[in-house]
Design the sequence.
């Protein structure tokens, strides 16, 4: 009725806006159909037959750096979609098709390793997705972004009344699928927890947004864990740093249930030593920083941190110059194909560095 009155078309959900679907469910496989179809068209089997092994690696890397990143930076990719995309990549790299399968040289996990670790440098889709979604954690913690409309909506909806501004402490159990996926990347594994949940630490400014006992603002853990006896003794467990600091003086306005004694005095002495000469800045707000990189959060550095796989290169092996046409042969040697029973290496010494490979 309204569409006919306004003389406009009647649309339907989902629809595309700025290249992304609006109104769809990112947990359904059909939501990702455009990405899968683009992968299939770009990584067609016939193109693989016309390219060398190094050329296929180059095309795989270029497709990954262009096609899915827009989707990956907004939505969390379901495991079924990751499996489908990896299947397309595997078939293209090893030359398989619907009619016949070719044997993979090594497992796909090793293929996705960095070249310095013995892999081909093809990005892992799940890790790349988590690293890109981590930008939302960084944007949420950015003190300069407090006035942004999207953050005001998120804080009002999920964090209203929450004493801590930690992104993991939500006040509502009915999270939207989008925000729930953003938070879930910090709980995927221990490494992800260290990158996101435990990766952002507070840098003290005026102390007006940092809880003295419960926030990690001095060191990597909250003071409630470093000084447990004093935490049990204090009357104000949720007090802010600015509320305890006595102006520019070195003193602190602690409030105890009773006078401390015994080991509590030892903890108090250690705490006062740690707080000595600590001054607050009225001109600077408290903010979060990503502790794994001095220049702040970046998806590239987050990917390196999450890609915590050991190197599969033997320390005795020499690192050859990486030419695209010969990278496949270098990788085959690194994959120990030369040491299969059917193939005998001509020499047990490397002609370049004269090191024994045995």
Sequence:
């Amino acid at each position: 009725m309204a569409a006919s009155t306004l003389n406009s078309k009647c649309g339907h959900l989902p629809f595309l806006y700025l290249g992304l679907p609006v109104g769809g469910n990112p947990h359904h496989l059909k939501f990702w159909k455009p990405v899968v179809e683009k992968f299939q068209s770009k990584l067609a089997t016939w193109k693989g037959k016309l390219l060398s092994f190094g050329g296929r690696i180059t095309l795989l890397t270029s497709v990954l750096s262009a096609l899915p990143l827009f989707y990956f930076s907004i939505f969390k990719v379901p495991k079924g979609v990751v499996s489908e995309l990896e299947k397309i990549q595997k078939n293209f790299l090893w030359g398989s098709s619907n009619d016949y399968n070719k044997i993979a040289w090594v497992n796909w996990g090793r293929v996705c390793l960095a070249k310095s670790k013995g892999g081909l440098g093809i990005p892992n889709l799940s890790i790349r997705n988590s690293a890109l979604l981590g930008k939302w954690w960084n944007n949420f913690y950015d003190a300069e972004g407090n006035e942004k409309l999207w953050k005001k909506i998120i804080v009002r909806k999920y964090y209203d009344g929450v004493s801590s501004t930690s992104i993991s402490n939500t006040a509502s159990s009915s999270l939207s699928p989008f925000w729930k996926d953003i938070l879930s990347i910090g709980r995927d594994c221990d490494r992800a927890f260290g990158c996101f949940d435990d990766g952002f630490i507070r840098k003290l400014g005026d102390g007006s947004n940092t809880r003295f006992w419960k926030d990690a603002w001095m060191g990597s853990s909250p003071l409630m864990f470093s000084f447990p006896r004093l935490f049990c003794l204090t009357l104000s467990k949720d007090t802010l740093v600015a509320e305890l600091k006595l102006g520019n003086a070195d003193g602190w306005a602690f409030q105890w249930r009773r006078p401390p004694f015994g080991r509590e005095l030892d903890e108090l002495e250690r705490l006062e030593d740690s707080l000595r000469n600590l001054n607050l800045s009225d001109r600077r707000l408290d903010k979060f920083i990503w502790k794994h990189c001095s220049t702040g959060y970046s998806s590239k550095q987050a990917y390196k941190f999450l890609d915590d796989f050991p190197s599969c290169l033997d320390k005795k092996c020499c690192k050859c110059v990486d030419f695209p046409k010969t990278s496949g042969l270098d990788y085959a040697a690194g994959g120990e194909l030369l040491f299969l029973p059917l193939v005998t290496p001509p020499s047990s010494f490397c002609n370049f560095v004269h090191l024994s490979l045995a």
User: Anything to note?
Assistant: The longest strand covers residues 200-203. The beta strands are 15-17, 20-22, 200-203, 287-290. The mean pLDDT is 78.
